From TrEMBL:
SUPFAM superfamilies found in the cross-reference section: Thiolase-like
Organism: Pseudomonas fluorescens
A GO biological process held by the record: fatty acid biosynthetic process
Keywords attached to this entry: Acyltransferase, Transferase
Top EC class for this record: transferase
Protein name per its UniProtKB record: 3-oxoacyl-[acyl-carrier-protein] synthase 3
Length: 373
C-alpha cells in the first residue's frame, strides 16, 4: 500500500464581508417591522413578539465577529434576508464549481502539480446546489482533470471524510493524486430571520491535494498518519430541504427547510464525543495528546473548541495550539477546519504532529493525524 501525503491546500474567500454590526442592523430592522405589523396580535397574545439582537450577544455566544459571503446586498435587505445569486445557464460554470476551482488552483500551485497529475476529484460539502450532474465532475472538466469525480456530503465533517476517501483510493493504487474540495455557500441555507442562528454561517471554499508520498515534491507536505471516522444519528442539527418537498406542498417554505439546530444539546453531546474520539485515535497509534503540537478543529463555536481542547490537554490551550479563524470567517461548515490548516501550518517544524478534526450534523466526527515532513 502506498503512503499518502497532503502536499497542498487552497482557499477561496468571497470578496464581501458582513460584520456583526451590519448583520444586527438588518435583523433588528426586520424585527421592528414584524412587531409593528403584528402589534394587535402581539397585544392579544396570538403572536409572540420578536426580540432584537446585538453584536455583543453574537460574539459572546459564538466568538464570531464577521463572515465572508457570496452576496451581501440580499442578506442585508430586511425585506429579503437571503443571498441573491442569479441562475446561470448550463453552459456556464456553476457557483459551487467557480468557488471550488478558485481554491483548487491555489492547492495545485502549492503542491507543484498540474491537472495532468490528478486522477480524481472529490467535492465534499454540506449542501450541493443540484442533484446531478455531480459538481465534482464539473470541477474536473473546468480544470482539465482526467479520471473520476464524485460528490459526497457528511455536513460539517465532509472534509475529513473526504480525506479518508482520497487516502483509500491512493493507498489502493486507484489514483496517484486526488483533489478534494469543499465549496460552501452556507448563507444559502441559513435562516437570517432566526435570532439564535442568523449569525452562524459564512461562505468559503477549500481544497486539499493528497498524493502518493513517493511522487510528492512540494515544500508543504504532511504525512497522513491515520484517519478515524464516527457517526451517530441525531436530529439536533437538521435541514429537511430536498427533492420530495414538492410532493408535500404544505411544508414548502417552512423553517425546517433551512438549517435548524438545538444548540445547547449539540454542545452537550458533541464536545465529549470529539474529545473522546481524538484521544482514542491517538492512543490507537501509540501517540499521546502531549505529542500533538497543533489542533485544527472545526470552526463552529469558540467555546466548543476551547472545551474540546481543554478536555484533551487537561488545561487551557495556547492560541497557537488550536488556532482560530472563526472570528473572521464564521462557521463555513466543511471548509472551516481546512481554512485553519491552510492558514496555520507553515510555522510547524519538521516532524511536528498535528490533528485535523471536523464535526457536526449527523452527528459526524472525523479525525486526521498528520506529521509535518
Amino acid at each position: 500500500m502506498h503512503n499518502v501525503v497532503i502536499s497542498g491546500t487552497g482557499l477561496y474567500t468571497p470578496a464581501n464581508s458582513i460584520s456583526n454590526e451590519e448583520l444586527v442592523q438588518s435583523f433588528n430592522a426586520y424585527v421592528q417591522q414584524f412587531n409593528a405589523d403584528n402589534a394587535v396580535a402581539i397585544e392579544q397574545g396570538d403572536v409572540q413578539a420578536l426580540t432584537e439582537s446585538s453584536a455583543a450577544f453574537i460574539e459572546k455566544a459564538s466568538g464570531i465577529k464577521s463572515r465572508f459571503v457570496m452576496d451581501k446586498e440580499g442578506i442585508l435587505d430586511p425585506t429579503r434576508m437571503t443571498p441573491r445569486l442569479p441562475e446561470r445557464p448550463n453552459d456556464e460554470w456553476s457557483v459551487l464549481c467557480q468557488m471550488a476551482v478558485g481554491a483548487a488552483e491555489q492547492a495545485l500551485l502549492r503542491a507543484g502539480k498540474t491537472a495532468a497529475d490528478i486522477d480524481g476529484v472529490i467535492v465534499a460539502c454540506s449542501n450541493l446546489q443540484r442533484a446531478y450532474p455531480a459538481i465534482a465532475i464539473e470541477v474536473q472538466e473546468a480544470l482539465g482533470i482526467q479520471g473520476f469525480g464524485f460528490d459526497m456530503n457528511v455536513a460539517c465533517s465532509s472534509a475529513t471524510f473526504g480525506i479518508q476517501n482520497a487516502c483509500n483510493s491512493i493507498q489502493l493504487g486507484q489514483a496517484r493524486a486526488i483533489l478534494m474540495v469543499n465549496p460552501e455557500i452556507c448563507t444559502g441555507h441559513l435562516n437570517f430571520r432566526d435570532r439564535d442562528s442568523h449569525f452562524i454561517f459564512g461562505d468559503a471554499a477549500t481544497a486539499v491535494i493528497l498524493e502518493r508520498a513517493d511522487l510528492a515534491t512540494s515544500e508543504h507536505q504532511f504525512d497522513v498518519v491515520s484517519t478515524k471516522l464516527l457517526t451517530k444519528f441525531s436530529n439536533n442539527i437538521r435541514n429537511n430541504f430536498g427533492f420530495l418537498n414538492r410532493a408535500a406542498e404544505e411544508g414548502v417554505g417552512a423553517p425546517d427547510k433551512l438549517f435548524v439546530q438545538e444548540g445547547r444539546k449539540v454542545f452537550r453531546d458533541v464536545c465529549p464525543m470529539v474529545a473522546e474520539l481524538i484521544g482514542q485515535h491517538l492512543a490507537e497509534n501509540q501517540l499521546s495528546v502531549a505529542d500533538v503540537k497543533r489542533f485544527w478543529l472545526h470552526q463552529a463555536n469558540l467555546s466548543m473548541n476551547h472545551l474540546i481542547v481543554k478536555k484533551l490537554l487537561g488545561r487551557e490551550a495556547e492560541i497557537e495550539e488550536a488556532p482560530v479563524i472563526l472570528d473572521t470567517y464564521a462557521n463555513t461548515s466543511s471548509a472551516g477546519s481546512v481554512i485553519a490548516f491552510h492558514t496555520y501550518q507553515d510555522d510547524l517544524p519538521k516532524g511536528a504532529l498535528a490533528v485535523l478534526s471536523s464535526f457536526g450534523a449527523g452527528y459526524s466526527i472525523g479525525s486526521v493525524i498528520l506529521r509535518k515532513r
